[in-house]
Design a protein that fits this description.
Order of helices and strands: EHEEHEHHEHEEHEEHEHEHHHH
Structural class: alpha/beta
CATH superfamily of one domain: NAD(P)-binding Rossmann-like Domain
Largest sheet: 7 strands, parallel
CATH architecture of one domain: 3-Layer(aba) Sandwich
Oligomer: single chain
Distance between the termini: 57 Å
CATH class of one domain: Alpha Beta
Number of helices: 12
CATH topology of one domain: Rossmann fold
Length: 361
C-alpha cells in the first residue's frame, strides 16, 4: 500500500489526479493537502471513486510543523507536489505570493521529506519518491524556427510565475544531488479539462461564450501553446512517479501546437453545435482582441519522446476530443461553476485584469 501526499490536491490538476488515482490504483492511500486559496476548492473533491482511502487536510505547504506531522502520522512514502500559484497574469500583479508558495513552500516540503526519509528513516529509502510537477514555461519562449523544448533545454523564465517555478525545480534537483533525496520532475505543457478555475483561457472562453460575454483574445491571438488534456497528464505523472528513473526529468505534452485563436474558434464551433438555439450563436461574434499582456511568450512546443520511449506513455486524447469533453463538462456542471466563482473574488479579479484592456479590433 502506497501512502501518497498530494499537495494542491483541491486545485485543478491536483484534484483530477486524486480522482484518477483513487479510480485506477486500489493499493493507494491519499492524503490531500491544500490551502484552499481562490483556485482550490472542496467542490473539486466531491464524488471521489473511493473516499475511504482519502484524507483531506486544510493547510499551507509552508507550515513546516504541519507538514512534518503529516509525514509522520500517515507514513508518507510518495509526494506528488502540485501546490503552486500558477497564473501568469496574477504573478505580474503580485509576484510575492508566487515566491512564497512556489519557492518557500517547495523548500519546506523538501526539508520535511529529507527529515522523514533520510534522517528519521520512517520509510525505506528505496521505497520513496518526491515528484515535483513543473511547467514548460521555465524554458522561456520559442521562435517559429526553434526546436521544441526538451529535458536538456536551458532555463530562461520570462515571468515571475515562470521564475518561481524554475527556482523550485532547481531546489528539487539540488536535494537529489546534495542529499540523495529520491526525486523526479516533470515539465508539462498547458493543461485543460474539468475543474479548471475559469480565469484560464479555455474555461474562460467557454463560460463567457455561454453567457454572451466578450471573448478577450490577447494581441493577435497567434500565441502558440501545446495543449494537454488533464486525464492524460495524470496518467503520465503516476508513471513517472512510480516507474521513472530517480533524479530524472520528463517532459509531458499533448503533441499539438495550435494558436490560441484556433482554440477559441474551435470552442465557439463546438458551442454552436451543442447549443444551436443559443441567442449568442454563432459564438465567434463574441470574439474581441485586446492589448497583449507584458512579456507574453510567443510559442511553446514540447518534445515528449523521452517519456514515450522510456515509460510507454503518450496522450490518449487529441485536441478535438479533449475540447469537446471539456465543453460538455462545463455545460453539465453549472452548480460547480456557481460555487467556484462565488467562493472566490472571481468577478473582482476579472475586473482588475481586463477592465483596462480596451477592444482593439
Amino acid at each position: 500500500m502506497r501512502h501518497v501526499l498530494v499537495t494542491g490536491g483541491a486545485g485543478f490538476i491536483g484534484s483530477n489526479f486524486v480522482h484518477y488515482l483513487l479510480g485506477s490504483e486500489p493499493d493507494v492511500q491519499i492524503v490531500t493537502m491544500d490551502a484552499l486559496t481562490y483556485a482550490g476548492s472542496l467542490e473539486n473533491l466531491k464524488d471521489l471513486p473511493d473516499p475511504s482511502r482519502h484524507v483531506f487536510i486544510h493547510g499551507d505547504i509552508a507550515n513546516r510543523e504541519l507538514v512534518d506531522c503529516i509525514f509522520a502520522e500517515y507514513e508518507i512514502d510518495t509526494v506528488v507536489h502540485f501546490a503552486a500559484e500558477s497564473h501568469v497574469d496574477r504573478s505580474i500583479l503580485d509576484p510575492g505570493a508566487f515566491v512564497q508558495t512556489n519557492v518557500i513552500g517547495t523548500f519546506t516540503l523538501l526539508e520535511a521529506a529529507r527529515k522523514a526519509w533520510l534522517v528519521d528513516k520512517t520509510v525505506p529509502r528505496d521505497a520513496v519518491r518526491f515528484h515535483h510537477v513543473s511547467t514548460d514555461e521555465v524554458f522561456g519562449t520559442l521562435s517559429k524556427a526553434d526546436p521544441p523544448f526538451r529535458e536538456e533545454t536551458a532555463y530562461q523564465p520570462r515571468s515571475p510565475y515562470a521564475a518561481s517555478k524554475a527556482a523550485s525545480d532547481h531546489f528539487v534537483r539540488a536535494y537529489y544531488t546534495t542529499y540523495g533525496l529520491p526525486i523526479s520532475i516533470s515539465n508539462c505543457s498547458n493543461n485543460y479539462g474539468p475543474r479548471q478555475f475559469p480565469e484560464k483561457l479555455i474555461p474562460l472562453m467557454i463560460l463567457n461564450a455561454t453567457s454572451g460575454k466578450t471573448l478577450p483574445i490577447y494581441g493577435d491571438g497567434m500565441q502558440i501553446r501545446d495543449w494537454l488534456y488533464v486525464d492524460d497528464h495524470c496518467e503520465a505523472l503516476w508513471k513517472v512517479a512510480t516507474q521513472g528513473r530517480v533524479g530524472e526529468t520528463y517532459c509531458i505534452g499533448g503533441d499539438n501546437q495550435p494558436a490560441n485563436l484556433e482554440i477559441v474558434r474551435t470552442i465557439c464551433q463546438i458551442l454552436d453545435e451543442l447549443q444551436p438555439d443559443s441567442p449568442f450563436t454563432p459564438h465567434e461574434q463574441l470574439m474581441t482582441f485586446v492589448p497583449d499582456r507584458p512579456g507574453h511568450d510567443r510559442r511553446y512546443d514540447i518534445d515528449i519522446s523521452k517519456i514515450k520511449s522510456e515509460l510507454g506513455w503518450q496522450p490518449r486524447h487529441d485536441l478535438q476530443q479533449g475540447l469537446l469533453a471539456t465543453v460538455r463538462w462545463y455545460l453539465e456542471h453549472p452548480e460547480w461553476v456557481q460555487a467556484i466563482t462565488q467562493q472566490s473574488d472571481y468577478d473582482g479579479w476579472m475586473q482588475k485584469n481586463y477592465a483596462n484592456r480596451k477592444d482593439q479590433t
